[in-house]
Amino acid sequence: MQGISIEPVTQWLVSNIPGAVAPFTFDLIAGGRSNLTFKVTGADGTCFVLRRPPLGHVLATAHDMAREHRIIAAVGRTSVPVPPALGVCTDESVNGAPFYVMGYVAGVVLDSPDKAAALPYDLRVTASEHLIDVLADLHAVDVDEVGLGDLAKREGYVERQVKRWSTQWEQSKTRELPAIDEVARRLRERLPQQHGVSIAHGDYRFGNCLVDVQAGRVAAVLDWELCTLGDPLADVGYLGVYWFDGEAANIRSNDPTPAGGFPRYAELLDRYATRTGRDLSGIGYYVAFSCWRLAVISEGVYSRFLHGAMGTQEGVDLDGFKTGTEALAERALEAMRKLS
Known about the structure:
- The chain folds into 2 domains: 6-103, Phosphorylase Kinase, domain 1 (2-Layer Sandwich), CATH 3.30.200.20; 115-339, Aminoglycoside phosphotransferase (APH), C-terminal lobe (Aminoglycoside 3'-phosphotransferase, Chain: A, domain 2), CATH 3.90.1200.
- Helix content is 41%, strand content 13%.
- The protein has helices at residues 6-16, 65-75, 92-95, 124-139, 157-172, 178-189, 232-241, 265-276, 283-306, 318-339, and strands at 25-30, 36-41, 47-52, 85-89, 99-103, 198-200, 209-212, 217-221, 228-230.
- The strands form 3 sheets. It has a 5-stranded antiparallel beta sheet, sandwiched between helices. It has a two-stranded antiparallel sheet with strand order 6-9.
- Strand 2 (36-41) and strand 3 form a beta hairpin.
- Helix 4 packs parallel to helix 8, helix 6 (178-189) runs antiparallel to helix 9 (283-306) and helix 9 (283-306) packs antiparallel against helix 10.
- The N and C termini lie far apart (54 Å).
């Protein structure tokens, strides 16, 4: 099993995870450019989930397993649904890289319009309302009370992000895209006042949640690798990038909402505002920022593939990354223009 050294990992699981009974089977759930996730099934049928960095050379800061485990363990003490954090291994001699283990949570990842078919039509509004309620609950968590007060700097989140991703663009761009530079300039000129300090997931959407499709509820929030402390409205704006607004040009392949039956993004904003008391009148800025950030990330992946840093290009839609960057940049620019 690529990514798993079966014998030493088995020994570690038996020694460190209560209820883990060898031998184990390991099945890859998700892999690729992000962290690798494996379903681990013990001899007695008990299931766990093991998560480790992608194979090959990676930046340790981008795939910090101990940090991600710490976040999940802390959030797990709140009402926000996350998989139980069971243990973390930082000894790279065990598996060639750090990893952590979570409890297994049943559910469906709604990461495409086709996947939406698993969610009954009459539960799509219910599931969407729970998705935004869970986000509001996450943003209500007292970061000091759960032990995450020192996770990151608290203030100036958007300003730091704009600076960081502007630098990233200069380092990874494969061509000039005036829209990227124009949006960056406009973002800097209109930096908003930060709306408090919260746990900011950084990649919050249906595609990073397990949904109980029988109940229409989020069973667990996944993929905390981009989590930090910051402006809660950044998460709310990011969700808008992955929510179909009726514009065909804004359809994303990993967003289930174009399948129909889901509420409008504006309805989610109203629900979040009512639940949190936050003013969302400037949310367009955060949607624009999120589109722009995704454009820079997409260009980075495209650049790494072009330069051979991501391995084989077989089966990779390089043109999709290229045009996706351009479409996101134009969407970000249009969103910024609407603010003027």
